[in-house]
Amino acid sequence: MCDDDVSRPHDERVMGTKTANQVSRRSVLQAALGVGGGVWTHDFRRPDEALAEAAAAGLLPVSMAMHIHASFSEHDGSMDGQLQQAKANGVKVLFSTDHDYRLNAFDGRRVVHFTSLTSETGDGRPWQWVQQRTGALASTSAGGIVSTPASPKDTVPTGSLYVRADSTTTARATLGYYAEAQPADWNYHFNLDGQTWTFEVLAASGNPASGYLELLMGTSSHPSTAGRPAGVYTLSYRFGGPGVPGTRHAQGTLGVINVPVTPGRWSTVSITPTDDIANLWPDMLARDFASSSLTLNAVSNGGSVSGHFDYLRFTRLNTSGDVPLQNQRELMAAYRSRYPAVHHYQGLEISRGPLHVNWFGPGVSLGDYGNMPPDGYLAFVQQQITRIHAAGALASYNHPYGGFRGPLLPATQQDAGQAALAQALLANNAMDCDIMEVGYPARAGYNLAHHVGLWDVLSGHARFLTGNGVSDDHVGTGWAASLNNWVTSVWAPSPSLTALIPALRRGRAWTASVSRFGGALDLQADGSVPMGSVSVATVPKRSLRIVATALPPDAVVEVVRGKVDYTNGPAATLGVVAAIPAGSFLSGAVRQWIDTTSSCFVRTQVRAADGVVIALSNPIWLLRETPPRGIPVARAA
Q1: CA distance 394 to 387
Q2: Contact (CB, 8 A) for 280 and 299
Q3: What is the pLDDT of residues 134-182, one digit of tens each?
Q4: What's the helix, strand, coil split of the chain in %, to 5?
Q5: Is residue 150 classed as helix, strand or coil in its secondary structure?
């Protein structure tokens, strides 16, 4: 996938003009000469003076990572790792937006009877037990579901998981089964705080020096600390073998727990991983760890090691009501002294079905999926959006084309999908959301141009949504290197939540790739209409002041104008009316006359020298009449 594919849709000509994604180098030069694309002039206030003016008005540029997951979601991220990434990338605010249904472990698997590797029925969708081998294993090494023996404690005593490893050397070799739960929506991947795992183990008699049975649990990734490398912390629960039963020790990010069992007999084992983490790594916050992987192994160090696992049960406390949110807040407070430069706020992703909505602002609470009818998810989401607004918070329409990740679709399919989704969102007013995620280089098969294009269609029909950019990161190990690495910034009096939410509501925001643009964007019409606002005036043209700071060399700031109409018809005319070289902003901000003989919206975007759009401002709407749906109070100029 090339950058050009990500940033530019196929064949987006509109009424004979070039669109925002087809500007040529010639048009850049024409704009610099004041011909062809529109006339712009300097106002001889440098970008640093623009920042000083904003500061004098009590406004600061505040950068925010707005869609971030940690140890309360399904992968191996941690709050620790995400906060470190925010600090490393100079991001001032972090919103933790973990999945609501993972916070309360909704639909979490509660028991495994080991009756099948692929299709065990029960209280949740089945896992795929995938055989894994490491080291030099003899042909006698084997495993799988067997009908006997089974633990007498199992309420479905018809099978167990058998594993045997015979190393051909004295080096470690393993045969085991990994619980692949992605098809089951990762229904054992939850925060570990309050979890107890209970299961039955039958270790065959043998030489303890030969090896051991093992439950290997992957948890969460954390930054380098206390001489340990960055990485995923792993717990190795060992049954039999040379370790002293009842002891624990840490080897870097590997924790070894020697569990007492009686060889040749079924033993009931209960483990509480958070307690073990706290004992093994007392400098860590033990509540910031998740269960992100599970493998059941036979481990051989030179002899034959075999045994059985059966009747795995999960007890998960701290998952009812808003208890997990309180635990999350306590963990956030505990990290405050470690990351004082990052303002950390609790959000929430409402996400049990195909449409995902983020909660930004006060009053975050969990809805009750238990009372939702099977076909009632959209109604449930609408109820949650009503609750969000009642709390004085904002709702974000997340990854509008879908939450899955994969290769880009053919351009014609992206075009058709954008058109169909635009009509649906116009019809339901984007579920009454306040924000839409548009800064996405690639998600659900759609490139950046089609995310932005969808937003432009809504803007062109007087739907006033603040566009933001996100990463939806679940790992917390390398924001800058990620393809989807956009953050959102606002002009606000401070990084406090009470300042950020009004700024987002008013659209005083811009969004950019965290690795490619660290500057600020702003717009102002007629000296008094700020970015994000809606202004009504029956004049033929209006003056736009454009601010762009810290532009990369050879970048171009494009001024995009879209016609506004009040029907739900086809997309309105959209085109670049000026393309201004980065050098023009070194000696001054830029003014641009905008044709307002018809109602329009205007925004800017930064295109790097390689042709990729790396930053977007929010629009100003310059209308000739009040729109039929009215103007939100927060956006009225």
Answers
A1: 10
A2: no
A3: 999 999 999 999 999 999 999 999 999 999 999 999 999 999 999 999 9
A4: 20, 35, 45
A5: coil
